[in-house]
Amino acid sequence: MKTMRLMAGLLVLVPGLTQAEGSVTLYGLIDAGVGYEKVKFKGDSQSRFSGVQGVSSGSRFGMRGTEDLGDGLRAVFTLEAGFGPLNGSSLQGGRLFGRQATVGLDSDTWGRLEFGRQTNMASKLMGQIDPFS
Asked: What single-letter DSSP state applies at residue 17?
């Protein structure tokens, strides 16, 4: 009987939970190319074409989201993982979401405060004007 009451209580709460004002964005980047090498040694030479990864900024996939808490305050999160596009291996020492994993608060009046594994301050500032970012 107690489980029926619990289930009924949860069903009453579900419609309110689905009305949330939040957003989640999935994103990614594949950074791969073709490389050419030619080696000369004592009059002999060899050359080859091969796939290369991490040419500009590294391959990644991730998700970032916000949840409106009211009065200009939002909860924010970012989860980002790096991978090798040639074989699909996980980068950053095999850690899931090893590139970036943050959670924080964003306010219209006070700014943003985030905790977790994140990029350094120079990358955040220069990334806005870097043409390759």
From this structure: H
